[in-house]
TrEMBL record:
It holds the Pfam family Response_reg. This is histidine kinase. Its EC number is 2.7.13.3. It comes from the Bacteria. It comes from Litorilituus sediminis. InterPro entries: CheY-like_superfamily (IPR011006), HATPase_C_sf (IPR036890), HATPase_dom (IPR003594), His_kinase_dom (IPR005467), HisK_dim/P_dom (IPR003661), HisK_dim/P_sf (IPR036097), PAS (IPR000014), PAS-assoc_C (IPR000700).
């Protein structure tokens, strides 16, 4: 586990009440949590060290036994390390601890990391000692509901049962005398051999044990029980007896059965369900359809870390239940729907895990398809604006020709018109092509109101001229954490649905987008329309995939399902009312927000004075005008610039004795790619600094390690880009 991951794991686990430890078996170092160090009598601070810490507090005999348990666990003989031992902490206080440990990571088939918890059970041990010391433990045991105590004397090999144990077995103390030979007959057949082996190990090797089984009574009734055994020693430390408890767990086990049935009712049997107790023991793994032993282990089915597992447990214990959809722990190679419910009365976590990778990929593909369809519907309107932009630029250029022909000197106004027209055209194409990009999952902080204002143009271009779109925003200054592109896409989806609802009534209508700040730091964005509205019986269906109330060929029912899914994934909320004050539906988007005292300002792009005095720069671009523009700009900054427009010219320049400090290349040329060009240049100048330019706005190449400037660009944008 990397240092960064360990740091994150420790940060999360510090919130867990129990003391814990983490043993790096490769480096043979142990991470002792702050809670554990406090338990051992030190400062409440985490510590990384060796096993020597235990040498100071646990006897050598006990320590050797613990290491033997660890060795058996590493060999696979036992599924976990489960020990209880006395120790003396750094303050001289005598304690009893109960430690659990498991291997949680393997490298090349070998155990590399163990994780475990430590509990202070001194009070419990003292209580048991007091009971035995006062010789009244039998009476106190009878007060424990549905529990009874037993004791096997090693000296005379006799067994003593409390009255409650006789009752659990359905026999009378007057007529039945328990012995090692007859008590196993009550155990359910499949567990008798195991019970015999555990009792034998306890009496011969003085080892405690735990067994969950069932008793079959004389009348055929079955009682489910836990049998717990501990070693009893005298003041001198000599083993005298095996002391333990029978506990009736029939009610809780029946509860588990009900939980299983409930889970099967709400989820298909094809979905794995894991019942895991507070000590991370899988109580029921047969509910899962995966019976191969490996996949029936939660960690082998869903590939998350111990840190994430502990965090889910903590949240479920605090809230009762948590649900997450489309969650991934490996960069979306596999995707899961996950539900964790904590049954406090039984101390059980119910994990319901469904692998939805294929479903998620289909949904993402559908989102892309929807955007492409939206792009097709939008292009007719947007192309009108592109033609307007081109018309402005062409007219300004022709005026420039006339002015130059007349010899006029003041042509700056027309130059500015051309530049503005190109900027507007660039903005139109960027917004248009943004629809075809893969949906981003990057969450950013931004001002949603300003984002809507910046995109008013796009909203209006989507609508018929007969539909009036209005915006009503009070003086709101706040930020939200949300994928910025998805925020606008959701609003566009709602606006298009509103337009369709209006067209169900006629050609003209009204749509209003408004916002307000609510209590508990919530921002509400409202979309209302004057359309046909939504009947009450259909309000629960509008977010269902493939449900649509529109006319034939006017919708596939995916849009609102995607809106709901996106809002849910990013901790938002979407609400709907069938009718509003405008007459049609009323959708409300609710976001957690951060209210600001003043207007939100995006971080400024780093700027600096650009100078390339006596710097040798090589520029490669098949567009001669662009290459010359870049060269002229750089020469104005003091650089020595050489330009190539194709592969042959590049090779000729590289074969000369010229030296270059910077290489600026187009990413796609007719006779070679940007990658090939960079490789050719770096073969000769391996320390050269590389920049790239591209006319493909939607291009995204994760293997490209160099900064990219999108065409078209002006001198200011070029300067800011080269200053990065």
């Amino acid at each position: 586990m990397k240092a960064q991951s360990l740091h994150l794991a420790h940060k999360v686990l510090e919130g867990v009440d129990e003391a814990y430890w983490e043993w790096d078996l490769v480096k043979d170092t142990i991470y002792y949590s702050a809670q554990l160090m406090k338990l051992l009598g030190y400062e409440n601070e985490a510590y990384i060290g060796s096993r020597d810490v235990w040498d100071k507090h646990i006897s050598q005999e006990a320590l050797q036994d613990i290491l033997f348990q660890v060795e058996r666990h590493l060999k696979g003989d036992i599924d976990k390390v489960d020990v209880s031992y006395p120790l003396k902490n750094n303050l001289g206080k005598d304690l009893w601890i109960h430690a659990l440990g498991k291997v949680v990571e393997r490298v090349d088939g070998r155990a590399s990391l163990m994780f475990g918890t430590v509990k202070d059970i001194t009070e419990t041990k003292q209580m048991i000692g007091q009971l035995k010391k006062q010789n009244d433990w039998l009476m106190l045991a009878e007060r424990i509901s549905n529990s009874g105590h037993w004791r096997f004397d090693l000296k005379d090999e006799t067994i003593i049962w409390s009255p409650e144990v006789f009752r659990l077995h359905g026999v009378l103390a007057k007529t039945f005398r328990p012995s090692l030979e007859n008590i196993h007959d009550f155990i359910i057949a499949k567990d008798r051999a195991k019970f015999k082996a555990l009792m034998s190990t306890a009496t011969e090797h003085f080892e405690p044990f735990y067994l969950k089984t069932a008793l079959i009574l004389a009348d055929g009734k079955k009682v489910k029980v836990e049998i717990i055994a501990e070693v009893e020693r005298n003041i001198s430390g000599e083993v005298q007896a095996i002391f333990g408890v029978y506990k009736d767990i029939t009610r809780s086990e029946d509860m588990f059965e009900k939980l299983k049935l409930l889970a099967m009712v709400n989820y298909t049997i094809r979905v794995p369900i894991f019942f895991i107790d507070d000590n991370d023991n899988v109580v029921y793994q047969d509910i899962s359809p995966h019976y191969d032993g490996a996949s029936s282990v939660l960690f082998n089915y869903i590939n998350f870390s111990i840190t994430e597992y502990m965090d889910f447990k903590k949240q479920a214990k605090e809230r009762g239940q948590i649900k997450q959809t489309n969650i991934s722990f490996d960069k979306y190679n596999s995707v899961f729907d996950l539900s964790v419910t904590y049954e406090a009365q039984e101390g059980i976590y119910i994990w319901i895990v469904e692998n939805v990778t294929e479903k998620f990929r289909k949904e993402q593909q559908q989102i892309i398809s929807n955007r492409l369809a939206l792009l097709g519907n939008t292009f007719g309107n947007v192309s009108h604006d592109i033609n307007n932009v081109l018309g402005v630029a062409l007219g300004a250029i022709e005026m420039l020709e006339l002015k130059v022909a007349k010899g006029e000197q003041d042509i700056s106004t027309y130059i500015e018109r051309v530049k503005n027209a190109i900027d507007k055209g660039k903005d139109v194409t960027e917004r248009l092509l943004a629809f075809t990009r893969k949906p981003t999952v990057k969450v950013v902080s931004f001002d949603p109101i300003q984002d809507i204002k910046d995109n008013q143009y796009l909203f209006k271009q989507l609508l018929l001229s007969t539909i009036n779109l209005t915006f009503d925003f009070p003086d709101i200054n706040c930020t939200i954490n949300f994928p910025q592109g998805e925020f606008i896409n959701i609003l566009l989806n709602l606006v298009l649905n509103a337009q369709d609802a209006i067209q169900e009534k006629g050609l003209s209508g009204q749509i209003e987008i408004s916002a307000n700040l609510a209590t508990d730091n919530r921002l509400e964005v409202h979309v209302k329309d004057s359309g046909i509205g939504i009947e009450e019986k259909n309000l629960t269906k509008v977010f269902d995939p493939f449900y649509s109330s529109k006319s034939v060929n006017k919708g596939n029912g995916i849009g609102l399902a995607n809106v709901y899914n996106t809002m849910y994934k990013h901790n938002g909320l979407v609400q709907v009312e069938g009718y509003s004050d405008l007459g049609g539906a009323h959708f409300t988007l609710v976001f957690k927000c951060k209210e600001l005292a003043g207007k939100y300002h995006c971080p400024d792009t780093p700027k600096g004075t650009l100078t390339y005095q006596n710097t040798n720069i090589l520029v490669l671009d098949d567009e001669v005008s662009i290459a010359e523009f870049v060269a002229l700009f750089l020469e104005s900054k003091g650089a020595n610039v050489v330009v190539a427009n194709n592969k042959q010219e590049l090779m000729s320049i590289l074969s000369s004795n010229s030296h270059f400090d910077i290489f600026i290349t187009d990413m796609i040329l007719p006779d070679l790619t940007g990658k090939e060009a960079v490789n050719m240049v770096k073969d000769k100048f391996n320390q050269i600094k590389v920049y790239s330019i591209s006319g493909y706005i939607a291009i995204e190449d994760r293997s490209w390690d160099y900064p990219v400037l999108r065409k078209p660009f002006n001198s200011k944008e070029l300067a800011e880009f080269l200053a990065l």
